[in-house]
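Usage example:
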Amino acid sequence: MTRATSFLALLLVFLGSGTAAADEPAVDVAPASLSFDGPGTRTLELRNPGGAPLVIDRVTLAPDASGFQLTDTGPRTLQSGERVQVAVQFTPDARRQQAFGGLQVHAAGQVRGVPLRAGSSWLLTLLIFFPLVGAALILFVPTGRHALTRAIALATSLVPLAASVLMCLRFDRAFSQATGNGGLQFIQHVVWIPSFNVEYFVGVDGLSVTMVLLTALISTIAVLASFGIDKQVRGYFALLLLLETGMLGTFCALDFFLFYIFWELMLLPMYFLIGIWGGTRKEYAAIKFFLYTLVGSVLILLAVIALYYSSSPTTLVDGTPARHTFDMVKLAYANDWEGKGLSLLGFDFTKVVWVAFFIGFAIKIPMFPFHTWLPDAHVEAPTAISVILAGVLLKMGTYGILRVNFAMLPLATQWAATTMAVFGAINILYGAFCAFGQRDLKKLVAYSSVSHMGYCLVGMAAFTRSGFNGAMLQMFNHGTITAMLFLLVGVLYDRAHTREIDRFGGMATQMPRYAALFGFAFMASLGLPGLSGFIGEVLVFLGAFPVYRVITLVAMSGVIVTAAYHLWALQRVQLGRWNESWRDRTIFNDLTARETLTLAPLAAVVLVLGFWPLPMLQLVDNGLMDLLRHVTGLHGAGTLAGLP
Amino acid sequence: MLDNAHSLRAFLPELIVAGTVLAVLFVDLLARRPHVGRAAALTAVGLVAAGAATVMTMRADGYGLFFGLIARDPLADFFKLLFLATNLLVVLISLRAREATDESAAEFFALTLTTTAGMMLMASATDLLTAFLSLETVSIMSYVLAGFRRRSRESAEAALKYVIYGGVASGVMLYGMSLLYGLAGSTSFTAVRLACAHTPAAATVLLAVVLCLAGFGYKIASVPFHMWCPDVYQGAPTPVTAFLSVGPKAAGFALLVRFFGGSLPAELVGAPAPWPILLGLIAAATMTVGNLAALAQTNLKRLLAYSSIAHAGYVLLALCAGGSDGTRAILLYLVTYLFMNLGAFLVIIAVADAGIGEEIAEWRGLGRRAPWAAVAMAIFLFSLTGLPPLAGFFGKFYVFAALLARGGSLMVTLAVIGILNSAVSLYFYARVLKAMYFEAPTVDEPLPLARLHAATLALLAVPTVALFLVWSPLQRFVDSSLGQWYPAEMRPRSAQLDRSVKRSSVQLANTSATK
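Running the assembly step on the lines above writes:
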């Protein structure tokens, strides 16, 4: 009758009552898990639920459960109903306050896992899912109450922003893999789908911490910039918040299955946001964006499954043995992929998987020749969505390459490094030249994104400290600068309903504050020293030059083209004589308070990081150094003072 | 293995369904006026009772009924529950569908019930004879159901096309079965397997299998036996289309799992049998043809017909992967497919109830006119595309996981073809979304949804969205459903009459639940 019971349990779960009845356990464990808030000892009670005596062979800690100590080991026999206590002790060390692992009860030929948790953090879960709560709330706002909808959206996007600022402030900058926990902080780690070894695992390290901050910042700015939307307001903000959940989740997720779900979760809202609220060719742009990214992500999915099935046996976080794992940390650091000597389709396994991941992520960057969706999507998307697209979504490509390609397949990464650098240089030059030829101001900015993301690729491919730091910094800086550029283009479009560069001229005479910010953002984008864009680029070139002299020189020539098209566009729009085709000058009123509010915080970030990038570098440095050591196979430590 | 008299207790679910058929018809005859609600209620009671009987008599092992003609094993039980649930949902979605239940509701429900009984037998068949008979039961009922709108030309055309294609496919399959019988001298699956494993005439086996696949392929609408599908799906009343696209397709897969698991050897003349290649070719062609043809459709039912062809291709991939991973993927996929595909058809019915037709162009602006129906449709279509966290993603995930777990160039290639296909499928599903959301409606007035439809939509949409929350219990149940029983081979007649279940040889294949 156990099968019937399991079906009835399933039915009950479907009907919303009752929980899943597991197979009859050999041993009862109470409580079902142990949580520690700080150092201390907790006891666990094992009971024999059956009628016959039960032999408990041993009680052990799972191999990866570090930080815990166990007093009881050794075999013992429990009579029916008899209980025995096991004491577990947790001692945190100075830095590492969190620990996750499992206790294993070996009895009756089974291994029963008991989760042990210390200092489990809810911060990231709150940060990820709070926008989703806001989205749900918005659906219940009565029709027509646009102001209320906007207020809810702004309030819900401010919470992740506050949480991420808090996270950055409390982020331990000296924390590295040597400290423990795979170099991760603010971890929450529980088993989600035990039958497929899927876990809910979130945490941040140097790779993701600035990206989470960027996402929360850009999302808030995007909500503010969307206050002008007056078509289907509820749907718009609900989707925008859903998108925010997807983005934050992608940067925080450390279980590959979870990562993929968040990764795909971004596509749906983006598709609708472009397709419903977009410009004249919105349908085309929306489906093109969707199809390109979907092709990329299904390749990622296949590669994920391939990695999963080739991963070494391990334990889940609750101590249950698992044949395979989706845990991204274990996939990266507990599996020697190259050493396994696998092959796939007749090629080296690691290289095939690497290429599949890389194409998937490169479409998102977008890397030449997969970039053609970007100009279309940007031109048609509403301003705030362009801001998110360029500000955050493109970074997922480079982030994914670092988190997955670099960390998991280091030798294949070395094998492909030069190719990556070459493609990076092509991106820089090709994007810059394309931007040069644009008549549409927004398309120009879109191509400048293609160009700027090329710097990240070159920096990453260099495998040097300043290359890595530069790429990471460039990711953040490009996010803020390009967000400003798109907002500025949006401001102009709102007034003129055209973005054609030739239709403008002498705007500075009419909109001086706008012109000032416009000039500021363009200077930042072209890499003027003193503004943040410069730091990222110069670090990238400093890091890449010793490794790829020719490629770096070619890429550096892109800086000249970049400066040229930025200055030329600036000159044509803002300077010169007023374009007399505009009969009514008064439509060009200067920045409103709300518009200033969207631009000012970004400008402040750009300015501060331009002079004082150290806090940002300190946040990312340890995580990047761990990755660098891993990917190059070198294990020499260094300090930040030694830059470059 | 039980004899006829002792089999009856284990045969209770089928008996209840058959009894319900009669009850529905008689009550309708005795009553003065036909009444949709009464017939539906009676049908629903019968289905729930059959489900309860299935659960009550469920066992973790398998045994044969009627001297091994059919099996009562976990796999069959799983499919029985799936079919009963499908039929129950079809009752719900057809209550307000005039084309199905306007004049002769009792007949309609009786026909679906008979089909369900046939499908239950199909999932249990362990003998070529029962396989063929149950398949024909399902087919003939499906022909009648497809032509249920007597006054409609399209419906009549659909039924006729269905009959003609079906007749040819059955004939071809029967020929294949006769070849297998000729090799084995018995119609039992096990006998066939042993005979095929030891015969030197590999070409004959191959030919017979290909011919048999014509019949099975026709049932699941796989290429090249899919031609009937778009016409029938378009012409048949929509509840029937919904039923046909889920029920008989799943039954076809049940039979295929049994056929390839129990009746065909893994090796032919000492070499690995070419079944994976054969199935892989069919799967790849089915997915690709289904998805590419769907790109050009303007009629929603036709579009979903091609989409269901493509989905048969994905499930075939899992069959091709084989083993417990493959079978698990098939079962899980069919569960997710039940919700999302029935849901998509229900939206068509609900919207048709409010006066909007089946052409995509007519659905313009539905997102504003009927927001809940449109949201539900979006959920079902995204789920059919296979986007997480919707149910369809999990179904597909297991299929590709099964392929890659098996490994080898063929499996990896198939996985790549399959996954690119699901990217292609986004394009035509998105066309519906585009019409609903991106295009302006011609008239702006809101479309009210019938309460029943709204409730049923929620019943289907909630599992489609939230199936991942109950994924572990679902998978546990599916894992316990992988056990299959096949007749023991060639024992003396007297031993076959042995009435003891315990002493009969119980073969449980693939029960090991792999972590």
